[in-house]
C-alpha cells in the first residue's frame, strides 16, 4: 500500500512540476499573431498584397479535399502560409501575397 502511495505522490509531484513549467513559459505567440494580422490588414488596404480571401480562392480548391485550417502572414516577406490537414498530417502552402503564386508546399 505504501509503495502505491509513493508512486501516486511521485506522479502527482511530476505533473505539478510540469504544470508550473508550462505556466512559467512566456507566450509571445498571441501578440505576434495580432501584429501579423494588423500588418496584413494594412498591406491589403494599401494595395501591396492580395486579400487572404483571394489567396484562399486560388489555393484551397487545388488541395484535393484536404481540410483548410487557416493561415499565417509573414509581413516581412509578404508571404501567406495556408495550413491544411489530410490523413492526420499538416500541409503548409506558402503563397506570395503580392502575386498569389504558390512558392512551396510540404508533403
Commentary on this structure:
The structure is a single chain. The chain is built from 3 helices and 4 strands; from the N terminus they run H-H-H-E-E-E-E. With 107 residues, the protein is of the alpha+beta class. It has one domain (29-105). Strands 1-2-3-4 form a 4-stranded antiparallel β-sheet. Strand 1 (67-74) and strand 2 form a beta hairpin. The model is unreliable at 15-27 (pLDDT under 50).
Q: What tags apply to this protein structure?
A:
single chain, 4 strands, 26% strand, 107 residues, alpha+beta, 3 helices, four-stranded antiparallel β-sheet
Helix/strand order, N-terminal first = HHHEEEE
The overall average pLDDT, rounded, is 80
> What is the structural class?
alpha+beta
Q: Please, how many helices? A: 3
Q: What is the total tally of β strands? A: 4
Uncertain segments = 15-27
Protein name: PepSY domain-containing protein
Topology readout:
Blueprint: H1 2-24, H2 29-45, H3 52-59, E1 67-74, E2 79-86, E3 89-96, E4 102-105
Antiparallel strand pairs: 1-2, 2-3, 3-4
Summarize the structure.
The protein is of the alpha+beta class and 107 residues long. The chain has one domain.
Amino acid at each position: 500500500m505504501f509503495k502505491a502511495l509513493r508512486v501516486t505522490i511521485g506522479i502527482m509531484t511530476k505533473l505539478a512540476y510540469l504544470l508550473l513549467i508550462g505556466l512559467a513559459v512566456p507566450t509571445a505567440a498571441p501578440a505576434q499573431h495580432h501584429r501579423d494580422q494588423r500588418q496584413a490588414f494594412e498591406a491589403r488596404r494599401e494595395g501591396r498584397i492580395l486579400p487572404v480571401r483571394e489567396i484562399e480562392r486560388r489555393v484551397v480548391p487545388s488541395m484535393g479535399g484536404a481540410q483548410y485550417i487557416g493561415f499565417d502572414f509573414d509581413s516581412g516577406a509578404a508571404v501567406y502560409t495556408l495550413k491544411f490537414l489530410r490523413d492526420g498530417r499538416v500541409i503548409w502552402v506558402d503563397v506570395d501575397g503580392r502575386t498569389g503564386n504558390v512558392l512551396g508546399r510540404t508533403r
